Amino acid sequence: MKTLYFYIVLVLIFAFELSAQELPLINQFVPEDYKAESQNWSISQAQNGFVYAANNKGLLEFNGATWNLYPTPNETIMRSVKTVDDKIFTGFYMDFGCWKRDEYGVLNYTSIVKENNIRLLSDEQFWNIIELDGWMLFQSLERIYIYNLSSKEVKIINSETSITKMFKVEDTIYFHELDKGISKIEKGTSKLFSNKEYFKDNRVVLAFRKDGKLIFLTQNDGFYDVDGKYTFNDKLSNYLENKTVYSASVLKDNSFIIGTISNGAIYCSADGEIKYKLNQKNGLTNNTVLTTFEDEKGDLWLGLDNGINKIDITSSVRIFNDKDGKFGTVYTSSFHNGYLYLGTNQGLFYKKYPSSNDFTFMPNTQGQVWSLDVIDATLFCGHNKGTFIVRDDKVNLISNIQGTWGVKKIDENRLLQGNYDGLYLLQKKQDQWVLSHKIDGFENSSKFFELYKDNLIFINHEYKGVYKLKIDKDYKKVISSKIDSSLSKGIHSSIIKYQNKIVYAYDDGVYTYVDESDAFVKDSVLNKLIEKDNFLSGKLIYDSGSNTLFSFSRENISYLKPDKFSSTEIVTKKGITSNLRKGTIGYENIQRIAKDEYLLGTLNGYIITDLKTDKQPYNLSINSVKYHAVNGDPQHLKLINEDEVELPSKHNSLEFEYSVPYLSKDAPVKYQFILDGYTKNWSSWSYKNTAMFENLPFGNYEFKVRAKVGEQIIDNIPTYSFMIERAWYISNLAILAYATIVFLFSLFMDRLYRRNYRRQREEMLKKQEREFQLKTLENEKELMEIRNTQLKQDVESKNRELAISTMNMIKKNELLSSLKKEIAKNDSDTKNIKSVIKIIDNNLNNEDDWQMFEEAFNNADKDFINKIKSKHENLTPNDLRLCAYLRLNLTSKEIAPLFNISVRSVEIKRYRLRKKLDLPQKSNLIDYMLDI
């Protein structure tokens, strides 16, 4: 019971008809885009293709790439605008006049009111401007001012009530006055045309001629002619009921656009058939349409209470947007047996085609529809639930294996089915297709698969690579399976069969399978379908009906179609960007629904377009050239010059702005430029319509720019030549001055060098002389050091001799004293002993020893004896002898033998010597001797 209730609810939810209003492209411009206020009261187009709008803030200019705002001179709301040749006429509070572009490319305003001393009424505002035969008509609520462009004559038509609108029908000006009716202008004066009550009571918004009759559209009561109520058809009349019409225009093909307050706009054929209902729900930025306008191309402009919208009526692109989300993302489509089918993430939808019918949900198909394949006049639907056969407005489930990606024909009685979990076989039995079995040996998802000869199946897995499966003849099991090593796996890749070849496409290009090498090789022709720098998806779709192979990139749709008269295959690009397509990447789809019409599925609907790439004449222009000063705002340069523009060196940073007045959004506009004299190659194609060059060196330059709309390169290449002068410090005079300075400086430096050379030479000679003297002194010093060393060695040698002599004397005397003592111990007083003792005494007091010691001492310390003598003249020879021994730092014990006296006697001698020397008690005698 619950299950039944659930399905009843689903049927109720999906049993609706989706309104399938396929609308032209709507290009939205909001206040944030054009940097002004929200309300726009009037729109016109100049002969150069630029569009102008009367905005609350002033005059808006759109050159196809950027908006510029020229504020109203008296800072009031601008109500009307009309272009005539190269002039832009505007009307606003208490003034009207014209704008004209100066030589710098900037619009300047001239007040006709002030120039002609026209006296206006209090609080007049000018709501409408019309041109007729060299006269400009400016309409306020109280008057119409007629101004002659040549003679500047001004005529004024006054109204007794209030003028609501002024119209131009063929060559006649009509205007509506409240409570009076319709009047027309003849020979500069007003003449009543009709004072019917319905004209008095209703505000008239539009006047036009149809079938010889003058038709008037009122604000609240539909259409009238001079005889009364006029009806196009019931649908249009019913639509206009209870709606307030504020603006309307008759177009060049006699169709018309009607703008309302709070209900958007409708576009009608010449017979009043409503083609499009445009409102905020399906694309407008606001439902109150303040003005309508048809541009030179035939597209519509709507000035809204909030923004400006452009309706691309002439574009081949039509869009269906499912604003409510009931339709969902379109994954696939098919045109079969007079029905157009759409497979979405919500289910399968259908309608008769061509017709104005709405799409209807196909019962029992809720869920994702992955594919719609026509095989032998039978439409198969690959669905998340399984596989359906579609017959007109009914479906039949033939396989309940979940997740059918698609089916391919094996032969007349067998189909291969790819599913989430591998491959299955469908078989025809008794003229009915049924599920036969699963092919064993492969369990991976088979989203992209293709049959090849000899039971070979290729399956592309985006995350693993391309599988090559060898299947047995009964298609029951996989004999062999391997991943192709000649390819790399790729996200958003795909594999298809094209002209009996297996074709694999991913971001590295397009490859075809070659039997002989059992590998994939890059195909030079098909590879043109994939642009690496513009890559979006490797999805390829082959339409057998038109024999066309499609690919999808970020900026266009590319398609390859064999030439009818040759064997060559040509790749053509249609400039429909991914931003316009808004499809799910990897699920791109395109279906031919008529001879020249194709349907592309999007995230919330679909697009219908053709593949025509007719070349249209467009004009590229340089709109402004500015130089950027270091301190200060950018300044405009002249655009029109007979001679080359000459710029001072400080103005060497230039900015160029350029545009193509291509006002539609069905194809991107891109630019590239080159600056001859500075760059050698053209820049890369870019959407940016400005080029900036900073700190250019002096020289001659020529700036060139070119553009392309979609893939159509525009013929004209505008140029701008200029020269940047040398800076004053590198001018010819400056260079001459520099040369003179360099010459004088060189002359000065030459003399300075010569003088410096002489001085250096003299200094060098002096230096060499000093060095020679120093060398001589060094040599003498070295010689002196050698001599000193030699003397030192001699002194040391003499000191050694003195020390040896002294020690010999001491030892000798000690020996003799010892012998004397030993002999003296003998009590014998013989004569011989006495003679021996006498000999010993003589040797102990040998004067020769002293003379030898004195000679050695004087050699070692020759000045000591003289110095001590000169200081102490009272010293005896023995005192001097004692001084010499003390100078040698001998102890009393060592001195005693030398005097042949006792140590005590030596101490007495030392004491007496101190007295003679008059030494203080604390002074050391030896130190005193050593210090002399």
Q: Helical region count? A: 14
Q: What is the molecular shape?
A: elongated
- Estimate the mean pLDDT confidence: 88
Biggest β-sheet strands, sense, barrel:
8 strands, antiparallel
Distance between the termini: 143 Å
The strand line-up of the biggest sheet is 27-28-29-2-30-57-56-55
Q: Please identify the structural class as seen in this structure.
A: alpha+beta
Summarize the topology.
Layout: H1 2-14, E1 17-18, E2 23-29, H2 31-34, E3 40-45, E4 51-55, E5 58-62, E6 67-71, E7 78-84, E8 87-92, E9 95-101, E10 107-111, H3 112-115, E11 126-132, E12 135-140, E13 143-148, E14 154-158, E15 163-169, E16 172-177, E17 181-186, E18 189-194, H4 197-201, E19 204-210, E20 213-218, E21 223-225, E22 228-230, H5 234-240, E23 245-250, E24 256-260, E25 265-268, E26 274-278, E27 289-294, E28 300-304, E29 307-312, E30 318-321, E31 330-336, E32 339-344, E33 348-352, E34 359-361, E35 369-375, E36 378-383, E37 387-391, E38 394-399, E39 404-411, E40 414-419, E41 422-429, E42 432-438, E43 448-452, E44 456-461, E45 465-471, E46 478-483, E47 494-498, E48 501-506, E49 509-514, E50 519-522, E51 535-543, E52 548-553, E53 557-562, E54 569-574, H6 578-581, E55 590-594, E56 597-602, E57 605-609, E58 621-627, E59 635-636, E60 645-647, E61 654-659, E62 669-676, E63 690-693, E64 699-709, E65 712-713, E66 719-724, H7 732-825, H8 831-844, H9 847-860, H10 862-871, H11 877-887, H12 892-899, H13 903-917, H14 925-931
Parallel strand pairs: 60-66
Antiparallel strand pairs: 1-34, 2-29, 2-30, 3-4, 4-5, 5-6, 7-8, 8-9, 9-10, 11-12, 12-13, 13-14, 15-16, 16-17, 17-18, 19-20, 20-21, 21-22, 23-24, 24-25, 25-26, 27-28, 28-29, 30-57, 31-32, 32-33, 33-34, 35-36, 36-37, 37-38, 39-40, 40-41, 41-42, 43-44, 44-45, 45-46, 47-48, 48-49, 49-50, 51-52, ...
Helix pairs in contact: 7-8, 7-9, 7-12, 9-10, 11-14, 12-13
